[in-house]
Amino acid sequence: MVVINEQGDNLGTFPTRQAIDMAKEKDLDLIEVAPLAKPPVCKIMDYGRFQYQQSRSQPKAKKVETKGLRLSFKIGQHDMEVRQKQTEKFFSQGHKVKIELRLKGREKAFKDRAREVMEQFLEGLSSYKIEAPLKQQGGTLTIIISKK
């Protein structure tokens, strides 16, 4: 295997046992950095430092969260506007939004009116794309939207 010292200089090709002994003499670890190369490439360095460098080099994935908003069947105009502003705020933070409208009692007989309330809510938003279409489960209508 090819051995590289802590400064990055190529020391040459050594048998595995000898390379491990060289690393132990310096109180460091022997880390295989290119296992698929012929012969494999190993580096003498501190393993903790190697892990830190690896974590720094990988880009952090941004976690997309799904925020939830609940509308009601008899929602007032001002309440609708407040929830629309809240949705825009969630979009600006990069989140998806799950909008839920629960129907209670006699409201379940007026599912067409509930769909109108959802459509009215969506019309008030500046721009969005539908992640999951409007679906109905029992007395609940839900839709998932995100920023365009």
The CATH C-level name of the largest domain is Alpha Beta
CATH architecture of the largest domain: 2-Layer Sandwich
Task: Spell out the helices and strands N to C.
Answer: EEHEEHEHEHEE
> Can you give the mean pLDDT?
91
What does this structure look like?
The chain is α/β, with parallel strands linked by helices and 148 residues long. The protein has two domains: 2-57, Ubiquitin-like (UB roll) (Roll); 66-146, Translation Initiation Factor IF3, CATH 3.30.110. The chain has helices at residues 16-25, 47-57, 77-92, 111-123, and strands spanning 2-4, 10-13, 29-34, 41-45, 66-71, 96-102, 129-137, 140-146. The mean pLDDT is 91.
Q: Topology, please?
A:
Elements: E1 2-4, E2 10-13, H1 16-25, E3 29-34, E4 41-45, H2 47-57, E5 66-71, H3 77-92, E6 96-102, H4 111-123, E7 129-137, E8 140-146
Parallel strand pairs: 1-4, 5-6
Antiparallel strand pairs: 1-2, 3-4, 6-8, 7-8
Give a concise summary.
By secondary structure, the chain is of the alpha/beta class. Helix content is 34%, strand content 32%.
Give short descriptive properties of this protein.
rod-shaped, four-stranded mixed sheet, 34% helix, Translation Initiation Factor IF3, 148 residues, alpha/beta, Ubiquitin-like (UB roll), 32% strand, 4 helices
